[in-house]
Fold this sequence. Notes:
This protein is mostly helical. The protein contains nine helices and no strands. Helix 2 (20-31) crosses helix 3 and helix 7 (136-143) packs across helix 8 (147-166). The radius of gyration is 35 Å and the shape is elongated.
Amino acid sequence: MPCFEESPLNDLINLLQPLVPGLRRYARALLHDAAAADDLVQDCLEHAISRWGQRRGDSVRPWLYAILHNLAVNRLKQKRRRGPHMPIEAVEEGTFAQAPRQDQALHQEDVFRAIAQLPEDQRAVLLLVSVEDLSYEEAAATLQVPIGTIMSRLSRARERLRRILDGSESRAVPHLRRVK
């Protein structure tokens, strides 16, 4: 019968076993969670054993700490990307609920269509002041019109936009002057 104590795997285990307490301390200091640290040490040892032939040099201890450190950094980055972990039972109802996004997209399309219906001079002022955040003076200089014109066009554009979005624009009967 073969003697298991003389096998290369047992030699490897005997070499790694004294290093485990130090690896656990380092992992706990990095992760601040005993269970996660133990999992990290186990992953480190699995990684080391599976890649034993890839190590450089005779010193195993720094190589193991480097593996542990790299695995910990990767886990911390992954945890940061994923957010905090909570058991599903501990989460309050409604935490994962989100407002529907369809309404917002439909409303946005309505606003774009309504802006497109505005006369070009009103649309330009509305976009410069409300979207591009230009001051009245800057919009007046851009369009080469007086500030009073900017203010009146903006007021008319906002009012017409509101009526278009309310649906009252299509029902409104335009006032025509009578010619005598």
